Amino acid sequence: MLKNYVPIFVMLPLGVVTVDNVLEDGDKLVKDLKELRAAGVDGVMIDVWWGIIESKGPKQYDWSAYRSVFQAVEDCGLKLQAIMSFHQCGGNVGDVVTIPIPKWVLEIGESDPDIFYTNLKGNRNPEYLTLGVDNLHLFDGRTAVQIYGDYMKSFRENMSDFLETGLVIDIEVGLGPAGELRYPSYPESQGWAFPGIGEFQCFDKYLQAEFKEAATAAGHPEWALPDNAGEYNDTPESSEFFRSNGTYVTEKGRFFLTWYSNKLMIHGDQILDEANKVFVGCKLKLAAKVSGIHWWYEVDNHAAELTAGYYNLKDRDGYRPIARMLSRHHAILNFTCLEMRNSEQSADAKSAPEQLVQQVLSGGWRENIEVAGENALSRYDSVAYDQILLNARPNGINKDGQPKLRMYGVTYLRLSDELLQKTNLDIFKIFVKKMHADQDYCPDPEKYNHHLGPLERSKPEISIEDLLEATKAEEPFPWDKETDMSVSGGAGGLVGLLSNLISKILALFK
Ligand SMILES: *[C@@H]1O[C@H](CO)[C@@H](O)[C@H](O)[C@H]1NC(C)=O
Ligand SMILES: *[C@@H]1O[C@H](CO)[C@@H](O)[C@H](O)[C@H]1NC(C)=O
Ligand SMILES: *[C@@H]1O[C@H](CO)[C@@H](O)[C@H](O)[C@H]1NC(C)=O
Q: Which keywords label this protein (predicted)?
């Protein structure tokens, strides 16, 4: 039965290490970590913020506060997933803390605002550097990719003891806003609200120049970036670009969308290659996160995914090429919105999180990579837990060995006093046990078929043609109707009814 075990991690609160690089309340951290360990949790995840560590100046890293956190996690017997967070914290759903990217980088942006993602109207977004500067020596002689590489190198050197003891089992490499491989197409800071289609973000001068060059090389110097794709809160039908038979289906539209989505993939590929060079030989896995853009999934144009850089249509798989790119780096594909059900979404968003999850996970499995995931919003009810359990083992458990399909791990968002409050914690513990397929906590990943051998060097580069081969749409693997390892004990189970009732009552008092 252990081969059915799916380890469960919990995200540490934002702000464990403050923006001033101090571990403020170490005692509370240790107390909470012990509770998590007692609840059966396998490990925790922490964002390692660029804006905190390299805030003093180029290459002036200060790891001391993080070392204390890592030590506490190790002392409590938990494993650690570390996120190389090269983005700003603040400006996205659930961000309660603001951690800008380093000041010396923002200062470069004062004289050269084109280092940031920019929309058609010229609004800049300081959350993350545009991928247009990945290979430009604009930062004290370094390129953006070199900055990311140097940062990870310093992490590896400074944390080498924790890497050797096996504390850090997973490095997720931040590849965009919110740490996700995407464009910042739906920033709340610029007035976006759910379920707006968002906007393309390729109007900084560097990406504009690159597009001009690409269009010219393709024999169409007259093609320009789209100026008819609407605004943040539009519906697809109201824009010329996305409406039925709109620009997006024309040759020009397809050329742009291919360029826009390929740029994103190449960006991820290059930074993961750096990460792989840095961590090669360490006993850990690399991971990259793909965003769960579930709104407008049900309409032909998939507008919100397209503006985010996922060129996904009914007859074109926009995610599997990303999975193929990750496969060369032995990286895990990390996805989100595992807890969401279609029935919970408002009908006008044309949202289909369940089908989206199935498509993305299936694409990853078909490319023979591991897939992991997280919930997108904080939830304490059994309905959400059961949906996560279903996605973790879509065809249930296998009493005689490994289940047909199994996620590599799930990270629960997020540690809070609310989670540790008794009713919530009681249900959460059942959830952990069910993730573990009713087995006791297992400290040795080998026992559940997770081989953490030394990270191998990335395989040779995959040509863009070969990556795009993976756009051929295929039916996702079939999912069972409901999970055989449920928290509620099946639909209408007593625990489920109670937990839902309790969370509804609690919600009234918020
Ligand atoms: C790690 O970083 C801390 C603070 O930044 C420093 O004091 C320490 O010497 C570094 N250790 C190693 C092994 O680099
Ligand atoms: C997946 O992403 C979430 C959110 O960033 C993170 O907490 C988790 O550790 C990631 N999982 C892996 C396997 O990297
Ligand atoms: C879109 O174009 C196709 C093929 O030209 C046509 O059959 C279809 O009716 C058009 N749809 C709309 C909504 O205009």
A: Carbohydrate metabolism, Glycosidase, Hydrolase, Polysaccharide degradation, Signal
Mean pLDDT of 341-346: 93
Residue 245 CA: nearest ligand 3 atom is 1
Q: Tell me how far the alpha carbon of residue 236 lies from the centroid of ligand 2, in angstroms.
A: 31
Question: For ligand 1, is residue 64 a contact (CB within 6 Å)?
Answer: yes
What's the first-to-final CA gap in the chain, in angstroms? 40
180 part of the active site: yes
Count Cα neighbours of 282 within 13 Å in the Cβ-side half-sphere.
27
Spatial neighbors of 297 by CB under 8 A, at least 6 apart, are 305, 350, 351, 352, 353, 355, 356
| pLDDT score, position 224 | 98
- Which of 233, 507, 225, 495 is closest to 379 using CA atoms? 507
Is 374 a residue of the active site? Answer: yes
Confidence of residue 95 (pLDDT cuts 50, 70, 90): confident
Give the position of tokens 């084109």: 114
Spelled out in words, what is the top-level CATH class assigned to the domain 2-97+141-188+251-508?
Answer: alpha beta
One-letter amino acid for residue 345 of the chain: Q
* 40-67: average pLDDT: 98
pTM: 0.94
Give the pLDDT score at 492: 44
State how far the Cα of 213 lies from the Cα of 211, in Å rounded to an integer.
Answer: 5
Q: Are 99 and 88 in contact (CB under 8 A)?
A: yes
Place of tokens 């280092």: 115
Q: How far apart are CA 83 and CA 418, in angstroms?
A: 24
* Residue 27 CA: distances (Å) to CA of 17, 23, 112: 13, 10, 43
Residue 311 to residue 73: CA distance in whole angstroms = 39
Q: What CA–CA distance (Å, rounded) separates 325 from 465?
A: 12
Cα distance between residue 170 and residue 158, in whole Å: 16
Catalytic residue (one of 54, 127, 172, 180): 180
Compute the C-alpha angle 26/412/379, nearest 5°.
110
pLDDT in tens, 304-330: 999 999 999 999 999 999 999 999 999
| Integer Cα distance of 169 and 2 in angstroms | 19
